[in-house]
Design brief:
219 residues; mainly alpha; rod-shaped
Length: 219
């Protein structure tokens, strides 16, 4: 009986002990031609055991890298890709650099910067105006929460202009309530209310509603 403590260490446990043994056997083959042929067969078997890798970019390259790791970086075969070194695999990925919000702007958060970038890319029109309105309102909420005090809209407009590199400018209006989007939304609301009111006050509609009431038909 073979105990787990007596078995060789699995370099990549997700591939299992069978593939590990195949790789070890491949290393012991006498000729390079034999090793090349068996290595290709192992690669196909590894792909079958881990079909999810096929959805990844350059999955074949990744399989060959894994084969080399399974061999403990000691496999003399002709691979279609250069084998990675131990140093390369141990190297930590470079930290992604994100825009930094400093000083007066740190409480706005990175999501605001992303929205600002989106708004800058949009063509002039209602969609862009609506997004700028959303950005300004969210900036105002963030400012009030962080500073625990009410902020004037002109401060938000100035911050928005500076964060966008002067490409988003609301400084021409007095307040968020007087922006074009606000007026457009209110105009639609008022028009809908006005239409409903005029419809209800129309004598013909009143007469029609009166006649349609079952209680009034027999009068």
């Amino acid at each position: 009986m073979e105990y787990n403590t007596d078995r060789n260490h699995l370099n990549l446990p997700e591939y299992g002990r069978i593939i590990q043994k195949l790789v070890e056997h491949c290393k012991e083959l006498a000729t390079k031609e034999e090793r090349n042929e068996m290595a290709k067969g192992i690669i196909d078997f590894m792909g079958q055991r881990n079909p999810q890798l096929r959805d990844e970019e350059n999955y074949k390259h990744k399989l060959w890298d894994h084969l080399f790791i399974l061999s403990n970086y000691d496999l003399d075969v002709d691979a279609p890709y250069p084998f990675p070194t131990i140093e390369e695999l141990r190297e930590k990925p470079k930290r992604m650099e994100y825009p930094k919000l400093q000083g007066d702007y740190k409480f706005y958060g990175k999501s605001i910067l992303q929205l600002i970038d989106m708004a800058i890319e949009l063509e002039e029109g209602d969609e862009k105006d609506a997004l700028i309105q959303v950005i300004a309102n969210n900036m105002k909420k963030s400012y009030n929460v962080y500073n625990k005090e009410h902020v004037q809209d002109d401060v938000i407009f100035r911050h928005l202009k500076e964060l966008s590199g002067e490409r988003l400018d609301l400084t021409g209006i007095d307040s968020l309530d007087k922006s074009k989007i606000y007026y457009s939304a209110n105009r639609n609301t008022k028009n809908n209310g006005r239409n409903q009111s005029s419809s209800q006050n129309n004598p013909q509609n009143k007469r029609r509603n009166y006649n349609s009431n079952p209680k009034n038909r027999n009068k």
